[in-house]
C-alpha cells in the first residue's frame, strides 16, 4: 500500500482575486489628470487533468491541501494586476471526482480530460474602469473576490478490459505474469497482492488489458479484508474471470463453493449508479480452474467442469506454472473483449448548452426570517453577494456605490414589498459571513452633499483664472485677514479678553 493509493480527500483553495486600485493621474501642470487605477488580476483555478504518466494518487495522499496562486493587485497608470496561474493537478485515467456525500462531480476518462475543482476569485475593478460620464473621478476601487474553497474525493477505478477475481492465493498474480509482461509480487501466503496489477495481453490482432484484483473473502462487500477497497476496480471491466484454486488444502473449500461465495460478494456490491455501465451481475463470466499441473487438482477440475458448463459458464482448465491451456484462454478472452467493445455504446461528447438568463431576471430574492434577535430580511442572490464581497466598507464612497447598485437592482423596492420599514435589519451576503445593515430607505450620505457620487467639482472647471483675478483674490484674502486682526486688537484693548484671575 505504500506505492498505490486509489482514494484520497483533497482540500482545495483557489486563488483570491487581486484588489483594484484607486489612483489619480498626476503630471506637471496637471495635478488632477483623472482616474488611472488598474484592475486586479483574477485568482488561479485548480484543475484536475488526466495524465497518462500518472497511475496512482499517492502524491495527494501525502499532501492533500493544495492552493492556487492569488491574482496581483492593480497599480496606477492603468496597470492591471497579473492573473494567478492555474494549478493543474495530474490524475490517472479513470479517476472519479465526488463530494463527501457521494455525489459525482466528474468522471475523468481519457488523456487530457479535465475538471475545474475550484475557481479562482474575480479581480476587483480599479477606479479607471469605474469611471463614467456621470462618475468622472471615483475615489474608490473594488476588492478582489476570495477564491473558491472545496473538498473533493478522488477515487481511482482501474481501466481494464478483463478482471481476475477470486480467493487469496488462487494464482491470479501468476496468471497475469504469464499472460503479459507484468511482474507482480508472487508468494505462497494470502493477500500477497495488495494493489491491482495491470498487464497488456496480445491475442492475434486484439490487444486488451488484464487487472489482477486483490483477493476476495466472504464479507468483502461489507468491508472484510481488502475486497471492498478494491471492488471498485472491477466496475469498468468488460469480462470477469473467476480464478479458482483446485489444489487448495483448506477445509470447506471446493471450486463450486468458491464460485458461489465470490458471486454472492459481486451481487452484494453496489457500484455507483451515476457512472453508468453494465451492472456486475450482467458482465460476461469466465471460469478458470487453475493449478492443473497438480494431478489431484486436474482430476477435480475435470470432475466439476460439466457442472459449471451446465450453469452457463465458459470453463478453462489451466496451469500458470506449467503454461497449460493459456493460449486457448487468451483467445477466448480476446473474443469476449472484442464483442463487448462492439456492443459498447459510443458516448457522444457533451455539448455546451447556453442558457442565458431572462431579461427580467433580477437575480435575487428577499427571505424574511425570524431569529432570536428579532425579524431580519436576508437578500439572497449571486450578484448582491458578490458586490458585498467586493466593497471596501472603510470607504464611504464605496459604500454609497454599493447602495446605488443594490437600488438599481431593485433591492430597495423588494424590501418595501416584503414589509421592511426604516430601521429593519437587512443581511446581504453568505449565511455565515453576511453584512448587516440597519436599513434606511433612500438615505443620502454626507458625500452626496458635496456633489454627485464619484465626481469632483474641480474637474468640471474648464476655465483657468487670469493673473488679474488671482491678484484680486490674493489681495482680498489679505484684506480680510487685516480686518480680523484689527477687530481682535480692538477687543483686547476694550478689556474683553481680560484674564479673570
From TrEMBL:
Location(s), subcellular: Cytoplasm
Binding site for Mg(2+): 173, 193
Cited InterPro entries: G_OBG, GTP-bd, GTP-bd_Obg/CgtA, GTP-bd_prot_GTP1/OBG_C_sf, GTP1-OBG_CS, GTP1_OBG_dom, GTP1_OBG_dom_sf, OBG_GTPase
Stretches for region Disordered: 59-93, 462-501
Domain OCT: 356-441
Tagged with keyword Magnesium: yes
Domain (Obg): residue spans on this chain: 2-159
Residue intervals of the OBG-type G domain: 160-338
Cofactor(s) listed in the protein's UniProt record: Mg(2+)
Residues reported to bind GTP: 166-173, 191-195, 212-215, 290-293, 319-321
Segments crossing the lipid bilayer: none
Keyword set includes Magnesium: yes
GO molecular function: GTP binding; GTPase activity; magnesium ion binding
Gene Ontology biological process terms in this record: ribosome biogenesis
This enzyme's EC code(s): 3.6.5.-
Alphabetized SUPFAM superfamilies for the sequence: Obg GTP-binding protein C-terminal domain, Obg GTP-binding protein N-terminal domain, P-loop containing nucleoside triphosphate hydrolases
Signal sequence annotation: none
GO cellular component, one term: cytoplasm
Entry keyword set: Cytoplasm, GTP-binding, Hydrolase, Magnesium, Metal-binding, Nucleotide-binding
Subunit structure: Monomer.
Family of the protein in this entry: Belongs to the TRAFAC class OBG-HflX-like GTPase superfamily. OBG GTPase family.
Protein role: An essential GTPase which binds GTP, GDP and possibly (p)ppGpp with moderate affinity, with high nucleotide exchange rates and a fairly low GTP hydrolysis rate. Plays a role in control of the cell cycle, stress response, ribosome biogenesis and in those bacteria that undergo differentiation, in morphogenesis control.
Protein name as it appears in the record: GTPase Obg
Biological source species: Ornithinimicrobium cerasi
Amino acid at each position: 500500500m505504500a506505492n498505490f493509493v486509489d482514494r484520497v480527500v483533497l482540500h482545495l483553495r483557489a486563488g483570491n482575486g487581486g484588489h483594484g486600485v484607486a489612483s489619480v493621474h498626476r503630471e506637471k501642470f496637471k495635478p488632477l489628470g483623472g482616474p488611472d487605477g488598474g484592475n486586479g488580476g483574477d485568482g488561479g483555478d485548480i484543475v484536475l487533468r488526466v495524465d497518462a504518466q500518472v497511475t496512482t494518487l499517492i502524491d495527494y495522499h501525502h499532501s492533500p491541501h493544495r492552493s492556487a496562486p492569488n491574482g496581483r493587485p492593480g497599480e496606477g497608470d492603468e496597470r492591471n494586476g497579473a492573473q494567478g496561474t492555474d494549478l493543474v493537478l495530474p490524475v490517472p485515467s479513470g479517476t472519479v471526482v465526488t463530494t463527501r456525500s457521494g455525489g459525482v462531480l466528474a468522471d475523468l476518462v481519457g488523456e487530457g480530460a479535465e475538471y475545474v475543482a475550484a475557481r479562482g476569485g474575480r479581480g476587483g475593478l480599479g477606479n479607471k474602469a469605474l469611471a463614467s460620464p456621470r462618475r468622472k473621478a471615483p475615489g474608490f476601487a473594488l476588492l478582489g473576490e476570495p477564491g473558491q474553497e472545496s473538498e473533493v474525493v478522488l477515487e481511482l477505478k482501474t481501466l481494464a478490459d478483463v478482471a481476475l477475481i477470486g480467493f487469496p492465493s488462487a494464482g491470479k498474480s501468476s496468471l497475469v505474469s504469464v499472460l503479459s509482461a507484468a511482474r507482480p509480487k508472487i508468494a505462497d501466503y494470502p493477500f500477497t497482492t495488495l494493489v491491482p496489477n495491470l498487464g497488456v495481453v496480445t491475442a492475434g490482432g486484439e490487444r486488451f488489458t488484464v487487472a489482477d484484483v486483490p483477493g476476495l473473502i466472504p464479507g468483502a462487500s461489507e468491508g472484510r479484508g481488502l475486497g471492498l477497497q478494491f471492488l471498485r476496480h472491477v466496475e469498468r471491466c468488460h469480462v470477469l474471470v473467476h480464478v479458482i484454486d483446485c489444489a487448495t488444502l483448506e477445509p470447506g473449500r471446493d471450486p463450486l463453493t468458491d464460485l458461489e461465495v465470490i458471486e454472492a460478494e459481486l451481487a452484494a456490491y453496489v457500484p455507483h449508479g451515476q457512472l453508468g455501465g453494465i451492472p456486475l451481475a450482467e458482465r460476461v463470466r469466465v471460469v478458470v480452474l487453475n493449478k492443473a499441473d497438480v494431478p489431484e487438482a486436474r482430476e477435480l477440475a475435470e470432475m466439476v467442469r460439466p457442472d459449471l458448463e451446465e450453469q452457463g459458464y465458459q470453463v478453462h482448465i489451466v496451469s500458470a506454472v506449467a503454461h497449460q491451456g493459456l493460449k486457448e484462454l487468451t483467445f477466448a478472452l480476446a473474443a469476449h473483449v472484442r464483442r463487448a467493445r462492439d456492443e459498447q455504446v459510443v458516448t457522444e461528447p457533451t455539448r455546451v448548452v447556453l442558457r442565458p438568463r431572462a431579461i427580467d431576471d433580477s437575480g435575487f430574492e428577499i427571505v424574511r426570517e425570524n431569529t432570536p434577535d428579532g425579524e431580519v430580511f436576508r437578500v439572497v442572490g449571486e450578484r448582491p453577494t458578490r458586490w458585498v464581497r467586493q466593497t471596501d466598507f472603510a470607504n464611504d464612497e464605496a459604500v454609497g456605490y454599493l447602495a446605488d447598485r443594490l437600488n438599481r437592482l431593485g433591492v430597495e423596492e423588494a424590501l418595501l414589498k416584503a414589509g421592511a420599514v426604516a430601521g429593519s435589519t437587512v443581511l446581504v451576503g453568505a449565511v455565515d459571513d453576511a453584512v448587516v445593515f440597519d436599513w434606511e430607505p433612500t438615505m443620502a450620505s454626507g458625500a452626496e452633499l458635496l456633489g454627485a457620487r464619484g465626481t469632483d467639482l474641480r474637474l468640471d472647471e474648464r476655465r483657468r483664472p487670469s493673473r488679474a483675478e488671482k491678484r484680486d483674490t490674493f489681495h482680498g484674502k489679505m484684506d480680510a485677514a487685516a480686518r480680523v486682526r484689527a477687530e481682535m486688537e480692538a477687543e483686547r484693548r476694550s478689556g474683553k479678553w481680560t484674564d479673570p484671575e
